[in-house]
User: Which sequence fits this backbone?
């Protein structure tokens, strides 16, 4: 199958490599000429995935039309703040019914929309789906066993994606719950910031387990209010991704949270992590969604207070611990 990948960061490169390894004809687009030159010369994403030598059959381009026109599938792997501009940029090149698979995670702050909806809005003639789950590029790039979910409202599309991506180390499940998949993948990043902050403050495993579990309760509350399936939220793209992102050394969100817990601002933390820290972009939008749907998300609120409202991490934690007494159920 001919596949175009938009975005040559860690995730775009790891997935392009996987797809080329599966025998597909892959071309990767990046907005960044320097990135394309590096990939062409070294077959290695030296900034994001050092040590992973990418399949030499992959082509690279800065010309988006080459990665879109005539491709059977387009994989969109640009960070969430650039999904709308990238979709706008390719809209007139996408043919009727062409398949676009979003693999990024985030919620747009100005519209509170998830990424599949944004792509659908900008490219109404496309069929848009999502692929998400606990899947760090650093591990997928090394062929470490990984499981994800392909979501599309039309199950046949989800199956097409499953067939394209699946191999002996990358297991893909199908689902029609696009809302649940995208919500879990986006909100877990905000909770991972909290888990990282807790680690950065020097607190213990008990605290992190509490943040993950109560964070999951917040994801469930919002997800159910938005019509997601509880099985999706407790599945790979919800609970699974929350576990990996709150505990992994590879996690950009956890690592940024750690630096914030140590006293850095979110801008300083993002600069140090270098790669995209999606939780920072999704934090305000998640809180706004919670208010819109009338659900409580105290951990998400605490993360917002630390990131944007000048509260120290310690103060936010004290506030969380001193909330009204309540029943767990
Ligand atoms: N890295 C990972 O392990 C995983 C990442 N994801 C998601 O995939 C998405 C991409 O993440 P990464 O590849 O890690 O990001 P990254 O930080 O490695 O790469 C960023 C990419 O964005 C491109 N870019 C910068 N400005 C741009 C613009 N204005 N328009 C279009 N592209 C632009 C850069 O050229 C670069 O290729 C994120 O939403 C992330 O949450 C999902 C699963 C795993
Ligand atoms: O979503 C991801 C892994 O599934 C990547 O985000 P993190 O690097 O913050 O964990």
Assistant:
């Amino acid at each position: 199958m001919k596949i175009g990948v938009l975005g040559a960061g860690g995730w775009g490169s790891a997935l392009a490599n996987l797809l080329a390894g599966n025998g597909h004809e892959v071309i990767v687009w990046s907005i960044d000429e320097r990135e394309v030159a590096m990939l062409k010369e070294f077959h290695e994403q030296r900034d994001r995935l050092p040590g992973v030598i990418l399949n030499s059959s992959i082509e690279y381009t800065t010309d988006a039309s080459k990665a879109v026109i005539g491709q059977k599938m387009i994989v969109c792997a640009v960070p969430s703040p650039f999904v709308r501009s990238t979709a706008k940029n390719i809209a007139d090149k996408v043919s009727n019914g062409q398949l676009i698979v979003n693999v990024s995670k985030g919620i747009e702050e100005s519209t509170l929309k998830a990424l599949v909806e944004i792509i659908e809005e900008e490219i109404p003639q496309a069929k848009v789906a999502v692929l998400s789950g606990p899947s760090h590029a650093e591990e997928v790039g090394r062929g470490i066993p990984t499981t994800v979910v392909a979501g599309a409202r039309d199950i046949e599309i989800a199956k097409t994606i499953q067939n394209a991506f699946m191999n002996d180390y990358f297991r893909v499940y199908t689902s029609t719950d696009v809302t649940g998949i995208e919500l879990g993948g986006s909100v877990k990043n905000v909770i991972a910031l909290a888990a990282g902050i807790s680690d950065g403050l020097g607190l213990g495993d008990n605290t992190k387990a509490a943040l993950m579990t109560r964070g999951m309760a917040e994801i469930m509350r919002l997800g159910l209010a938005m019509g997601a399936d509880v099985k999706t939220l407790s599945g790979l793209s919800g609970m699974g991704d929350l576990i990996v992102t709150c505990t992994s050394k590879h996690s950009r969100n956890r690592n940024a949270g750690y630096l914030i817990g140590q006293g850095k601002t979110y801008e300083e933390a993002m600069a140090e992590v270098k790669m995209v820290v999606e939780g920072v972009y999704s934090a305000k939008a998640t809180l706004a969604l919670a208010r819109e749907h009338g659900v409580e998300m105290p951990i998400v609120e605490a993360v917002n207070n630390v990131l944007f409202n000048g509260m120290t991490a310690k103060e936010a934690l004290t506030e969380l611990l001193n909330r009204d007494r309540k029943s767990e159920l």
